[in-house]
Design goal:
mainly alpha, 14 helices, 76% helix
């Protein structure tokens, strides 16, 4: 049996993929040991993706070549705009992160980069480019979430982020994305490799960045933004 196209993409990016899936943040989240400051930084930045991500899903709906695919993307967009967004808002409240505080905190470089990649893929109106970014965003998260062993963490902020990415419906959606990219990617392999590879790099960098910041609830702004580096160098 020949290798799936998506398996080949993952193998081409295997070192970085494994670094992301096995990242310190993932390990601490799965064990329930991730510090509140780190989780706060992570959630503030991850919530910034929703606008660009919904835009990407809209482009997937517009460019998909079958009605069934459009239905699948539409249903998933509904989950992102309801269940997942509600999780973020409940978590911000539990972590004492106000909307005003979130607004004061700038994007990290990986956050800005990933949002830009999502918008770039959406603007291409190329279904394969869109699929490549979506597949990384969802498949990589499914892989780390399903590594959990033993009971879920007691804190719902940790537990629900895991279960949002490790449940039968999500597993089916990841498989749908992979099947779509398997079906069409070989005929646009250069585009698929480009967007897939850049997305994997940004996923790993995104996890790294949440440890390069102070508790946002203490200072109101994170450390090690590009402005901070410039100040430190002077």
């Amino acid at each position: 049996m020949s290798q799936r196209f998506t398996d080949g993409l993952r193998e081409e990016n295997r070192p970085t993929w494994d670094e992301a899936v096995g990242h310190r943040f993932v390990q601490e989240l799965l064990s329930g040991d991730v510090d509140d400051a780190v989780m706060s930084n992570y959630l503030i930045q991850d919530h910034r993706f929703l606008d660009a991500f919904v835009t990407l899903l809209g482009s997937a709906i517009a460019t998909a070549d079958t009605f069934e695919a459009r239905l699948r993307f539409g249903r998933f967009a509904g989950i992102i705009c309801s269940e997942e967004n509600t999780y973020f808002l409940r978590s911000f409240e539990a972590l004492n992160i106000s909307e005003a505080l979130r607004d004061r905190i700038p994007d990290t470089e990986p956050t800005g980069g990933f949002a830009a990649l999502m918008r770039e893929a959406a603007q291409t109106r190329d279904y394969v480019a869109i699929l490549a970014v979506l597949t990384v965003a969802e498949w990589l998260y499914y892989e780390w979430a399903r590594m959990r062993q033993g009971p879920l963490p007691e804190n719902f902020v940790h537990a629900e982020w895991i279960t949002l990415h490790d449940n039968p419906a999500f597993a089916e959606f990841v498989e749908f994305l992979r099947n779509e990219l398997d079906r069409l990617g070989a005929d646009a392999a250069e585009v698929a490799r480009d967007f897939f590879g850049r997305a994997v790099q940004l996923e790993r960098q995104f996890f790294d960045a949440v440890y390069a910041q102070n508790d946002p609830r203490d200072a109101g702004t994170p450390r090690n933004t590009r402005a901070d580096y410039a100040q430190e160098e002077n």
